[in-house]
Amino acid sequence: MKREIIHTDAAPAAVGPYSQAIRLGSMVYSSGQIPLDPESGQIVAGGIKEQAERALKNLSEVLQASGSSMEQVVKVTCFITDMSMFGAMNAVYAEFFGANPPARSCIGVASLPKGALVEFEAVAASE
Asked: What sign does the dihedral 71-72-76-81 (CA atoms) show?
């Protein structure tokens, strides 16, 4: 199988030695997406709702660049720095994944890159 590196300028550039995503066969494996504005490279203003929305938009852009979409996601891992924000994050997440959400894990962590409150990574099918 051919391993293909995925990159799009519609999502933030990698802030380290990693790819935005890798497509291998019919599967896409995304790197974690934090709430960076793709143009400024800065964390978006606001709280968990705004950060979750931006991070999920970034994830969606990476998936689209790979030939996949949010509808084809089979597994998400989310990382959150404060589990008391889980409900607010979950409400935004539900808007992106609708009635048939993928499998998911949510892990509370001490910190995330650039001071982000939330990060999402996904595994998705691709055409």
From this structure: negative
Tokens of 90: 């979950």
In tens, the pLDDT along 54-71 reads 999 999 999 999 999 999
Domains of the chain: 3-125 (3.30.1330.40)
pTM of the model: 0.96
Q: Is the dihedral of CA 1, 105, 92, 14 positive or negative?
A: negative
Determine which helix (DSSP H) or strand (DSSP E) holds 60, and give its type and residue range: helix 48-65
What string of DSSP letters covers 1-31? --EEEE--TTSPPPSSSS-SEEEETTEEEEP
Spatial distance between the Cα atoms of 31 and 19, rounded to a whole number of angstroms: 7
